[in-house]
Amino acid sequence: MTESSKSKPEIEFPEGPAPAELQIEDIEVGTGAEALASSTVDVHYLGVEYETGDEFDSSWGRGESINFPLRALIQGWQVGIPGMKVGGRRKLVVPPAQAYGTAGGHPLAGKTLIFVIDLIGVS
Q1: According to the UniProt entry, which residue ranges have a biased composition of type Basic and acidic residues (predicted)?
Q2: How many domains does the chain fold into?
């Protein structure tokens, strides 16, 4: 797998209440191919809980990027990644309804999540 030349991001602890809507912020705009809703993406990412700042997942922690078809991911990623270009870094703040639901089942259900995503490749 392709490795990102960027280092693992640090996420500043957010202030105020968690947003009710998906927030998309380009930290760095890429110059490569653009991700589409139908794309499979090669990414490095970091995920933390909005309320606590606790990291729950990181591809950097595993030492390699991950390939995902966007259609198989949480809605926040399906909406938040298309339009991003290879080489870019984007922050998504994903409310529970667009993450793992508002209650039950998943350990992250009911939680607002913050992801920082580096787009390494698309196919």
Answers
A1: 1-11
A2: 1
Q: Measure CA of the first residue to CA of the last residue in the chain; give whole Å.
A: 13
Mean per-residue pLDDT, 36-63: 94
- 11, part of any domain: no
User: 63 phi and psi, to 5 degrees?
Assistant: 80, 10
pLDDT interval class at 5 (50, 70, 90): low
- What is the C-alpha separation between 76 and 24, in angstroms, rounded? 9
Q: What mean pLDDT comes out for the span 81-104?
A: 95
pLDDT at 23 over 90: yes
Give me 3's structure tokens.
């490795």
**DSSP codes of every residue in 12-25:** PPP-SSPPSS-EEE
